[in-house]
Amino acid sequence: MAEAVRVLIADDQALLRGSFRVLVDSTPGMETVGEAGDGARAVELARELRPDVVLMDLRMPVMDGIAATREICSDETMAGVRVLALTMFDMDEYVYPALQAGASGFMLKDASPSDLVAGIRVIATGEAVLAPTVTRRLIETVSRTRPTARPAPRLVGLTRREQEVLVLIANGLSNAEIAQRLVISLPTVKTHVSSLLAKLNVRDRAQLVIIAYESGLAEPGMPA
Fold first, then answer.
1. Measured distance CA(16)–CA(74) in Å, rounded
2. Among the residues of the chain, which ranges form H helices?
């Protein structure tokens, strides 16, 4: 039997923490391992408990969720801990900084219980999850703030095929869709994705999307 996905809940509202706990603990294959009411405590518990996923509210006292995410994701001793950022607000100012800080996904708190559970499962497997509206806002924000002629030294070591895969990832295609588009096998796609993560030194697809748009390799409205 597979081990349960261990979840740490970080939110300054006790009522919401309780609701999330009930959802997680009532879902087969998941368990809540701790709760934190502020970002600093979330970092402490993440270091102590090593959860698989941290549900991270972005607006908390003492230390906000973005700073807490950065602390967790930059600590090599917590390399297996992944952050799913949550907020009540669908606002540009939170999406980009949260993902830059290392969050593997970004969802709104008004997401359905089934969507939130699915998001936790995806994050726990090492993938990334971004709601469609969040992806659009991310792309718009990166494109708006990126210098027009910014060099992309990080892409120099990528093969042509890896760059093609990176563009398709930035366009939101799944591994299966990439395999179909490029007429290659699914294991080959997974190999290319693993190579991209290693060469670009990032955790998951969320960071790959940011790099693709920051570097200019992908552009808003570009055909996949």
1. 27
2. 14-25, 39-49, 65-73, 92-100, 113-124, 132-145, 160-170, 175-182, 186-200, 205-214
DSSP helix/strand/coil, 32:
strand
- β-strand partners of 5: 30
How many CA atoms does the CB half-sphere of 219 hold within 13 Å?
7
Q: Does domain 5-140 have CATH number 3.40.50.2300?
A: yes
Q: What is the pTM of this model?
A: 0.75
- What is the chain's Cα-based Rg? 17
Specify the pLDDT at position 136. Answer: 58
d(CA 106, CA 128): 9
pLDDT per position as a tens digit, 135-150: 656 666 665 655 554 5
Helix 160-170 to helix 175-182 angle, to the nearest 10 degrees? 130
Among 22, 216, 18, 204, CA closest to 106 = 204
What architecture is domain 150-214?
Orthogonal Bundle (1.10)
The SS3 call for residue 53 is: strand
Please give the order of strands across the beta sheet that includes 82-87: 30-36, 5-10, 53-57, 82-87, 105-108, 129-130
Q: Is the pLDDT of residue 28 over 90?
A: yes
